[in-house]
Amino acid sequence: MQTSFHMSLPCQSVKETKSFYNNIGASFGRSTLNWVDVNFYGHQITFIKAGKFNFNSPNYVFEGKILPSFHFGIILDHTTWQNSYAKLKELQLDLVTQSTFLKHKAGEHHSFFVKDPNGYMLEFKSFKDSNDVFNT
């Protein structure tokens, strides 16, 4: 069995959260009026209606780009990454422009971010060499 992660996050609206993740190609598992399990590329994210919440989301600079320090994401093969970028751009979502990081170094990857309706930043990442995910 391939290992998957589970993450639980607060959300403001289950309906808006489901709509957003449906639009970006996710599917759903169990749900009630107060929570939903999202199948995000084979990983389980449970969004639980929690009303208003607040979290610090400071930014940091990496290779001259300002990036959100509070984010989560998915690592995809390059074709799936390109297709995802094209689809999300077509949906006219507020994408943080795609960039290539660590060019010509171990860990070279393409990356872009999109914000979900709860304010979470999702990163879509594709490594030039999939063996470099943890290489330094």
Strand tally is 10
SSE pattern: EHEEEEEEHEEE
> What is the overall silhouette?
globular
Strand order of the largest sheet: 1-4-3-2
End-to-end separation: 28 Å
| Low-pLDDT regions | none
How many helix segments?
2
- Fraction of residues in helices? 10-25%
Structural class based on helices, strands and sheet pairing: alpha+beta
The largest β sheet comes out as: 4 strands, mixed
What percent strand? 35-45%
Mean model confidence by pLDDT:
87
- Rg, nearest Å: 15 Å
Top keywords for this entry?
136 residues, alpha+beta, four-stranded mixed sheet, 2 helices, 17% helix, globular
Descriptive account of the structure:
The chain starts with 5 loop residues before the first strand and ends in a 9-residue tail after the last strand. Strand 3 (35-40) and strand 4 form a beta hairpin. The chain is 17% helix and 43% strand. It contains two helices and ten strands. Strands 1-4-3-2 form a four-stranded mixed sheet, covered by helices on one side. With 136 residues, it is of the alpha+beta class.
Structure summarized in a few sentences:
The chain is α+β, with helices and mostly antiparallel strands and 136 residues long. The protein has helices spanning 14-23, 78-90, and strands at residues 6-11, 27-31, 35-40, 43-49, 59-62, 65-68, 71-75, 95-101, 109-115, 121-127.
